[in-house]
Structures are given as C-alpha cells and as structure tokens.
C-alpha cells in the first residue's frame, strides 16, 4: 500500500487541526464537510470527470484512518466509497451532498443505517421482481427514525415507499460488491482504532511511574501491551491483504469474499483483547470521560458489529474453509 506521504500528512493535519478546535467530536460537522470538499477529500475516489479526485482505495483507507486516529466522526466512507460508488456504477448522478446507503428488506425497511438522520440523500438498494434496483432519494422523502451506536454516531431506521421511484437496475454482482466493500470499510476503521489504542498504551506505560519505576518495566504490563500489539498487527495484516486483493483484481478476485471475512473476523476478535488489555493498562484513569482512551475502545467495539456481526463473518470464514476442503484451502488463502 503506497500512498504519497505528503497527502497523508495533509489528511492528518486537517483532522488534527479540527480536534484542536473541537475537543469534543461532534460528527457530520457541515463546516468540516465543506472544508473537506474544498480539499477534494469528500469524493476522493470519484472520477475526475464527475467532480471527484480520481484517487483509489489506498488513499481512501489512509483518509479513513486519519479521521479515526483523531477521533473525528464523519461519513466519508458511506458517502464516497459506498453511496458515491454505487451511484456511479448504476449510471446515476451524484454531487457533494452528504449521502449514505442502505439495503431495504422486502417491506421497505432498513435498520442501523449509518448517518441517515444527518444525510441529505440516501442511496437505496432493494429487490423487486427478481432484480435489484438503485435509487438516489432525498432524505426528506423517507421515514427516518433516529438511533445511535455505542459512540453516538447515527444508526437509524429507514422506511421507504419504492413505488414510482426513478431507479436504475443493479446486477447481483454489484450488490455483493457493496456488501464486501461495506464490511471492509469497518475493518479499516477498527484497525485504525486499535493502532491508536496501542499508541496510547505505549505513551501511558512509558510516562506513568509506579513504585519508583515506569509501568513499562513491569513484566505483567509488558505482556498486556505486547498482546495488544500482536492482535492489532494481525488485524491490520488481514485487512491490508483483503484491500490489496480487492484493488489488484478490481474487486473480482475469487477469494475476495473469504479475505474480507477473515479481515472482519480478525479485527473483531482483536478488538476484544485490545480493549480489555488497554483498560487494564490504564487502570481507573482509562474509564474517565476526560481521557481519550474510550473514544477508540468504544469505537472499535461499535464498528466490529456493523455491516455484519462478528458471528456472521466468523461463519463466512468457516463455511468457505469447509467448502474449499483441505486441498483447496491454501489456494483460498493465497489466491
């Protein structure tokens, strides 16, 4: 994953500057959204001829990670990588209005839709008459019941009457790709949160003195931190493997579904160990609202259950491995 270091520094600078001025993350801040739009970051992966910046998923992953590192909550993934991409491949126009995406059930409902209550428009996907359809609908035309996840991000219930909507057909392959991209987005965000937790732990044990020496000198503490580092690294490796395969094969690799499932499974299980150990390392101070640890531990726990639960992704890994059998398992892993 090679990304221009100057671009990464610029992304970090934007979010660091925002958090310096906004100690409490507000989420979906329209002033920040406008600034990101002016910098070409809102539709980072959109085609240049359609008003995007023409970048790729590697750059987008760095952008998402930068936002997570600084505790900024904003629907860049939902707007660009999911809704924007879906409208592009469906031949529907998309502008810089804040968007999210949801897959409706047969009754026209969707639950836990990210950012629907704060979005301008929602890219709807539903199945009718044996075919999937896509429509870009103003949020005001939908029934939206607000809700939140563990860290206060909007996770809403959406109800839509799809009758008469100006819709475009969508192939099953597009819908499956949307599912995989949605799952991978959350893996990227969880990994960024785990990396930030590790950094906070290292800073804490290096500076905190107990019984006349830094916490980092105690073997029990070293074991806790080393487990955090190992789990975070495993999750990151699995996620980067899935992302690299997706980009290299234009999201059509035979083993992509398996790799995304592995990434989500590894990231989800890593979150359990990292969050538990991090709060043990920090002790009582880590449970206070004033300390920033909770911004990342709660985020990791919230995101690991979105766009598919841990059990769902674990089952996907197991089913793929069982279907491949011993003879095909290595090919499934290596591609």
Main sheet properties = 4 strands, mixed
Portion of residues within helices = 40-55%
- Low-pLDDT ranges: none
Structural class: alpha+beta
Mean pLDDT: 93
Number of helices: 9
The ordered string of helix (H) and strand (E) elements is HHHHEEEEEEEHEEHHHH
Main sheet: strand order:
1-3-4-7
Proportion in β-strands: 5-15%
Quaternary structure annotation: single chain
In whole angstroms, how far apart are the ends?
A: 18 Å
The gross shape turns out to be globular
Radius of gyration: 20 Å
DSSP, total strands? 9
Number of domains: 2
Cofactor: FAD
Domain Acyl-CoA dehydrogenase/oxidase C-terminal: 186-308
GO molecular function: acyl-CoA dehydrogenase activity; flavin adenine dinucleotide binding
Protein name: Acyl-CoA dehydrogenase
